[in-house]
Amino acid sequence: MDTDTNDRIARLEKRLAREKKARIEAENLLEAKSREIYENNKKLHQETRLLEATVVNAKDGVIITDADLVNGPTIQYVNKAFTKLSGYMEEEVIGKTPRMLQGHDTCRDTLNELKETLSKGKSFQGELKNYTKDGDPYWLDISIVPFRNEDGEITHYTAIERN
Reduced to 3 states, what is the DSSP secondary structure of residue 101? Predict the structure, then answer.
């Protein structure tokens, strides 16, 4: 072999060694990042389960609705305390508006204040008279908080109700 060929082979071997080293470094980095993502997901899963257990087992009623204030928000989730308080089963309220809980004696001024406050993207806290499935009135101390996505848009409301 001539010197030119030997030089080309030597350059290719060096290049191959650099590429092999870079590939190994990339694989190690990928493995480390994968472990980090796995641990973060595991932690998030544990936190989610803890929050879910807290909401499900809370003694106060919890309602989560979408953010449609024009047509009336629709109920997406209720916990057991809500069903016990209202007399409605979960399947009877999911997809319906919380207005179904109001009646002839529910204060319209409070409802207007509630809607106005939420339409400004603020939290609402007040007292409200609702009605059970059987038509029995009950008073609530209610707190409604908007939930915002990463872009700051309100996507849901969470209401905590205490009788």
Answer: helix
Strand partners, 141: 127, 162
The 3-state DSSP class for residue 28 equals: helix
Q: For strands 154-162 and 61-66, give the pairing.
A: antiparallel
Residue 53 CA to residue 45 CA, distance in Å, equals 12
**63-90 pLDDT, tens digit each:** 999 999 888 899 999 999 999 999 999 9
Contact 67, 157 (CB under 8 A): yes
Render pLDDT for 34-69 as a digit per residue (tens, 0 to 9).
Answer: 999 999 999 999 999 998 998 888 999 999 999 998
pTM over 0.85: no
Residue with tokens 């191959």: 16
